[in-house]
Amino acid sequence: MFYVIGLGLCDEKDITVRGLEAVKSCSRVYLEAYTSILMVQKERLEEFYGKELILADRDMVETESDEILRNADTENIALLVVGDPFGATTHSDIILRARSAKIPVRVIHNASIMNAIGACGLQLYNFGQTVSLVFFTETWKPDSFYDRVKENADLGMHTLVLLDIKVKEQSEENLARGRKIYEPPRYMSIPTAVSQLIEIEEMRKQDILIPEKTLAIAMSRVGGGDEERIVCGTLAELAAHPAEAFGEPLHSLVIVGRRVHHLEIEYGESYAINRESWRNVAQSVYGCSLDS
C-alpha cells in the first residue's frame, strides 16, 4: 500500500490517529520537504512516530517517484505531506503514477491552510480562487495572479494569497554551470507580499488593490497555537506596519472581498492595526453596515 498522509499545520502531534497507525505500519517513510514547512524539526517527528524519515525534495518527488514507490505493491510505503495531501498538484501526480503501476493507494487527510485560514474570521464559502505570489526579481515580475484577484473581486469574493517558498533553489549561475549548490531557504513575508501587490496595482491601474481602500488580513503560523498571528488593516497599513509584528513564517495574506459580512468585519476588528480605520473603510468603501 502507498499511503499519502497529511501532517496538519503545526507539529508532530497534528497527525491523525489513522495517519499515525499507517506510519507505524510502513517499512519506508518519506517526508516531503519543499511545498510547505512544519514548525518542528524532523527529529521530533521521528521520535514521536517511531520511524526514520527520508527527506524527499522536489527532484525526488517529481523525477524519482519510482524509488519512492519501490516495492509499494508488497510493502507499506508512506509519503508525509505538510497540511493536506491534495494541497499541491505534485501529490496528485505521484498518486496517478502509483495507480498506473497497479499499486493500491490510500490518502489520509488533515487540516491545511485552505480551511484553517478561517481562523481570520472570514467565512470559507465567501472565498474565491486561491492565488500564489512568487518572489519578484529585477527581470521577472509575473502578474497573472492579478487577473484571478480581479475575477474574485468582481464577484465580491475573498482571495487567499499563498506566499512563495524557496527551498533547495539554485542561483542562475549555479544552475547554468550544473553545480549542485543551493541557496539558503527563503520564505516570503507579509511586507514583501504587500509591496509586490501594490507594485502590480500601480502597473495595471485597475483599482483592484488600491492600498488605502483595500482591506486585507495577514496570517502567520496558522494552526500554531500561541505562535499564530493575525493582523488586519488596509494594504497601506500593512505595508507601514513593523515587519516583526507579523510573526515567523509561514505567512499568508487574504484580500477581503466587497461582499464581506458585518460579522466578518467585527471579528477582524480585534486584530486591526487601527480599529477606526478598519471600520471606516468597511463602511465607506465596502458598503458594510456596522452597528455604531
Automatic annotation (TrEMBL):
It is an enzyme of class 2 (transferase). GO terms for molecular function: diphthine methyl ester synthase activity. S-adenosyl-L-methionine-dependent methyltransferase that catalyzes four methylations of the modified target histidine residue in translation elongation factor 2 (EF-2), to form an intermediate called diphthine methyl ester. The four successive methylation reactions represent the second step of diphthamide biosynthesis. PANTHER family: DIPHTHINE METHYL ESTER SYNTHASE, DIPHTHINE SYNTHASE. HAMAP family: Diphthine_synth. Its EC number is 2.1.1.314. Gene3D superfamilies: Cobalt-precorrin-4 Transmethylase, Domain 1 (3.40.1010.10), Methyltransferase, Cobalt-precorrin-4 Transmethylase, Domain 2 (3.30.950.10). It comes from Cristinia sonorae. This is diphthine methyl ester synthase. In the N-terminal section; belongs to the precorrin methyltransferase family. Pathway: Protein modification; peptidyl-diphthamide biosynthesis. Residues 1-238 form the Tetrapyrrole methylase domain. S-adenosyl-L-methionine binds at L9, D84, G87, S112, I113, L163, V222, H251. It holds the Pfam family TP_methylase. Keywords: Methylation, Methyltransferase, S-adenosyl-L-methionine, Transferase. Homodimer. InterPro entries: 4pyrrol_Mease (IPR000878), 4pyrrol_Methylase_sf (IPR035996), 4pyrrole_Mease_sub1 (IPR014777), 4pyrrole_Mease_sub2 (IPR014776), Dphthn_synthase (IPR004551). It catalyses: 2-[(3S)-amino-3-carboxypropyl]-L-histidyl-[translation elongation factor 2] + 4 S-adenosyl-L-methionine = diphthine methyl ester-[translation elongation factor 2] + 4 S-adenosyl-L-homocysteine + 3 H(+). It comes from the Eukaryota. One of its GO terms (biological process) is protein histidyl modification to diphthamide.
